[in-house]
Each structure stands twice: as structure tokens, then as C-alpha cells.
Amino acid sequence: YRVDGLMQRIPVETKRKVIGLVGSISASEFYEAGRSGLKPQCRVSLFAPDYNGEVAVELDGTRYGVYRTYTPKDDTIELYLERKAGF
After folding, report:
1. Which residues of 43-69 are buried (b: 16+ CB within 10 A; e: fewer)?
2. Where are the alpha helices (DSSP H) in 1-87?
3. How many CB atoms lie under 10 A from the CB of residue 20?
4. Segment 19-75, tens digit of pLDDT
């Protein structure tokens, strides 16, 4: 956070690089997310300790929002991403 002239705390975005494996969304995931008004684009699997609860991901220069996570039994986490207008 940074403090502005009115002494308000403003969140500051920081970037960091993380290695992950990009995969596609299953048909059932696409259908279920679509029913909730979401537009899923892809899934990224990465080492679980590398994820700190971020809500935005930049992948190949495109910003995505994280709408769901899944943690299998191993030490990975899956991030389900969607494109958002103005995000």
C-alpha cells in the first residue's frame, strides 16, 4: 500500500514471475462457470507455495482474473482464469 495526499491507503500492484503449466478448461467447467455468468479461459497449475491469494494474473501480456482455485492432494494448485473487461 501507499498513502496518498488525503492519508488514504491505496493498494499498489507488484509483479513477480512464477512458473506454471497452462491447460484448457474442461467442457463441464466451462458450462458450470457460464451458468454463474463467468467466462473461463484457461487453467494454470503451479507450485502451491508460489500462490499468495492473488486475484489477477498476467499471462503472455493478457490480464486475467482468478475466479476459482483447486488444490489437489499433491503440492500444486490450479488457478481457473477468466478475462474481465477493464481488468
Report:
1. bbbbeeeebeeeeebeeeeeebbbbbe
2. 27-35
3. 19
4. 999 999 999 999 998 898 899 999 999 999 999 999 999 998 899 999 999 998 889
| pTM for this prediction | 0.83
Cell of 53: 491469494
Contacts of residue 10, defined as CB under 8 A and 6 or more positions apart, other chains included, come to 1, 2, 3, 4
Kindly compute the dihedral angle of the four CA atoms of residues 61, 66, 71, 76, in this order, to the nearest 10 degrees: 10
Inter-CA distances, 72 with 14, 43, 46, Å: 27, 14, 11
Instruction: Tell the burial category of 75 from Cβ atoms under 10 Å away from its Cβ (0-12, 13-18, 19+).
Output: exposed
Task: Pull the grid cell for residue 72.
Answer: 489437489
